[in-house]
Amino acid sequence: MNLLEMKHVKKSFGNLQVLRDISLEVKDGEIVSIIGPSGSGKSTLLRCATLLETMDSGTLKYEDIIVAENDPNGKSVYADKKTIRKVSSVFGLVFQQFNLFPHWNVMQNVTDAVINVQKKSKAEAEKIGMELLEKMGLSDKANYYPFQLSGGQQQRVAIARALALNPKVLFFDEPTSALDPELTGEVLKVIKSLKDLKIAMVIVTHEMSFARDISDKVIFMSDGVIVEQGSAEEVFNSENERMQTFLGRYKDIL
């Protein structure tokens, strides 16, 4: 069974059509990288998948739960709040800008949703939090506040926070775009280490060598459509002219 299915997704902002007709599938444990030029609709696609944006038309399904499907007029109609709440526990999202609460320490940031959404005790939540911080190499930072951390450390806290709810799929929206090259390597190394957890990951990234190395599937988007998708080898060796033009910028690292 597919963990995530999106079919014939369209999304516009005013007169600007950002997603023109997108269909994709993500299987359990699969790592999918979405690449393409800025403005191609990658982040909007992720925001539609994680319910931060509503689709104009198309269907969205997690496992056997239909989140949205078209009405007779071809417009997306979303499920009720109870269904939306249920499906929200299936995925986690890591943002470009970390989005940590500045007035909470690291442990509070990681455990808040575990306590208030999953209704676990503070002690149980902090046990989960400490295990994740250890995995992120941050066990000594539990009582630090975000301003006391580097950008790379803040992003690792954000990853721990997303993992704390034990999602089946983790979405990353350009997780290194706000970081300098040294910190970028640090965060990419952590994301690679998550392969051990066998959870699905969907990663919007401009890090081409990383996408090539980590992905089971690569999707290349341009102008709101999927131009190429397949294994990393298939996509990066594609003879599609648009793909070749895009990859030409990265030839020094590929």
Q: Structural class of the helices, strands and pairings? A: alpha/beta
Give the overall shape. globular
- Counted by DSSP, the helix tally is 9
Over the alpha carbons, how many angstroms does the gyration radius reach?
18 Å
Strands, count: 11
Polypeptide structure, described:
It is a single chain. The protein is an alpha/beta fold. It has a domain at 101-165. Helices cover 34% and strands 28% of the residues. It contains nine helices and eleven strands. The strands form two sheets. A six-stranded mixed beta sheet has the order 7-8-9-3-10-11, sandwiched between helices. A five-stranded antiparallel beta sheet has the order 2-1-4-5-6. Strand 5 and strand 6 (76-78) form a beta hairpin. It starts with a strand and ends in a 6-residue tail after the last helix.
Summarize the structure.
The chain is 34% helix and 28% strand. The chain has 254 residues and is an alpha/beta fold.
Topology summary:
Elements: E1 2-13, E2 16-27, E3 31-35, H1 42-49, E4 57-62, E5 65-70, E6 76-78, H2 81-88, E7 91-94, H3 106-116, H4 122-135, H5 151-163, E8 169-173, H6 181-193, E9 200-204, H7 208-214, E10 217-222, E11 225-230, H8 232-236, H9 241-248
Parallel strand pairs: 3-9, 3-10, 7-8, 8-9
Antiparallel strand pairs: 1-2, 1-4, 4-5, 5-6, 10-11
